[in-house]
Amino acid sequence: MNDALNSALFDKLTREQDKYRDWLKSQPPEEILNHAYEYTVREDILMSMEELELSEGEARALLLSPAPMAILYDAYLDRETSYMDTIRDSIEDLAKDEAKKLKELPVYPYHAGYAREHEELDVYRASLHANVSCKEAIEDAIREHYRDNSLGKGAVAQVVNQFGYDRILFVLANTVRHFEHDGRISETNKAWSKTIPIYENNDPAGNDRTARFVVNSHPGLTDLFLSQARRGYLLTQPLTADEIRKEALRLLGKLQEPEIPNSPNKTHFMAEISRDFLERAGSKDTEKLQRMMPFNSLTLSTLKDRSGVYAMISKEENRNQSLRQRKPSVRNKLQKAVSEAKPSPAKRKDMEL
Predict the structure, then answer these.
(1) Residue 345 and residue 349: Cα distance in Å, rounded?
(2) Residue 299: beta bridge partners?
(3) Each residue of 108-136: pLDDT tens digit?
(4) Quick check: 104 and 127 in contact, CB under 8 A?
């Protein structure tokens, strides 16, 4: 797929240069001479592109530009190093910058009418074009990573590197909304898609513009891709206090289940900490988890010949306990005391009188 994108970019640059050449030939000799240097550099840009292989994200970003040759030439003019090296460096640097801009481009969720009313059509169009490019990247990733009846984990990462999670999830939510009655999309993902605001966006002929960025891969594979993307996104988010408490409750239940110690040497009760929790938890999150557990002998430990991290307590512990309640901070107590000590507005008025 990367070769195809680079070929498409080369073809686009060639067409742009051919158009420029035709325009230049129609000019008077003096004007042609004035543009001779620019023409030569642009030809060298084409020559360099025959040797370069940009990443998928970089190639896609340049393809989205209406005039990639012109911006590559402008980027070259801003540099002051050796000639052909400068040409190649300019292409690669600008492609990286454009790819970075594409990844950081905010999703514009509103319809064209709203954008027109608020003078945001440029932002709307840029986001729409990026949505279409993103849906194509998802289709490519699914096609490249589907092997032996499974979708490789690299599929999501490949697209995230180009577009980021916000746009991917927006495009996928839109796709699921278009496949609402398809049984190959899970009910969980259908319910999730309804939490993402997507506005009706019809053109003057009544055609739905959002159909332009519907992923057309097999719905079952699209569902798998979405599930992986949602999980990947979740792992990038910090844990909330409620999620830490839920993990503490789950561990407490697991530690209370066995009738006899279940550690390898039968001296401790143990329960494995959730892998998802560990991937997202920082040291402070782990400390909060430990403080919630009601056991003095609690330790978090790895075990020989086993993967994972385990919460372990001595077999002498009283396991019939509840989670510890978080004590209010001293600061909160003081703020509450000060607040209660302040006279009400009515009393303050009496005192002033």
Answers:
(1) 6
(2) 312
(3) 999 999 999 999 999 999 999 999 999 99
(4) no
- By residue count, the chain amounts to 353
Which residues are within 8 A (CB) of 174 and not within 5 positions of it... i.e. 6 or more apart?
Answer: 131, 193, 196, 198, 210, 213, 214
Give the closest residue to 13 by CA, choosing from 55, 52, 42: 42
Residue that has been written with the tokens 């097999």 in this structure: 218
Contact 172, 212 (CB under 8 A): no
- Rounded distance between C-alpha atoms, residue 245 and residue 291, angstroms: 10
Tokens representing residue 84 in the block = 């052909």
Residue 132's nearest CA partner among 64, 193, 194 is 64
How many other CB atoms are there within 10 angstroms of residue 347's CB atom? Answer: 10
Give dist(CA 165, CA 58) in Å, integer.
Answer: 17
C-alpha triplet 170, 204, 199: angle, nearest 5°: 25
Q: What is the pLDDT of residue 79?
A: 74
Q: Which residues pair with 17 in a beta bridge?
A: none
Task: Evaluate whether 289 touches 244 at the Cβ level (below 8 Å).
Answer: yes
Residue 236 neighbours by CB under 8 Å, 6+ apart: 165
Per-position DSSP letters for 273-337, written without gaps between them: PPHHHHHH--HHHHHHHHHHS--TT-EEEEETTEEEEEEEEETTS----PPPPPPPPHHHHHHHH
Give the separation between CA 86 and CA 45, rounded to whole angstroms.
10
CA-CA distances (angstroms) from residue 141 to 67, 104, 229?
27, 20, 12
Check pLDDT > 70 for residue 80.
no
pLDDT tier, 84 (very low <50, low <70, confident <90, very high otherwise):
confident
Q: State the CB neighbour count (10 A cutoff) for residue 207.
A: 11
Q: Tens digit of pLDDT for each residue in 236-260? A: 999 999 999 999 999 999 999 999 9
Q: Can you tell me which residue has the tokens 């839109």?
A: 174
From residue 230, give the alpha-carbon distance in Å to each of 173, 188, 234: 11, 11, 6
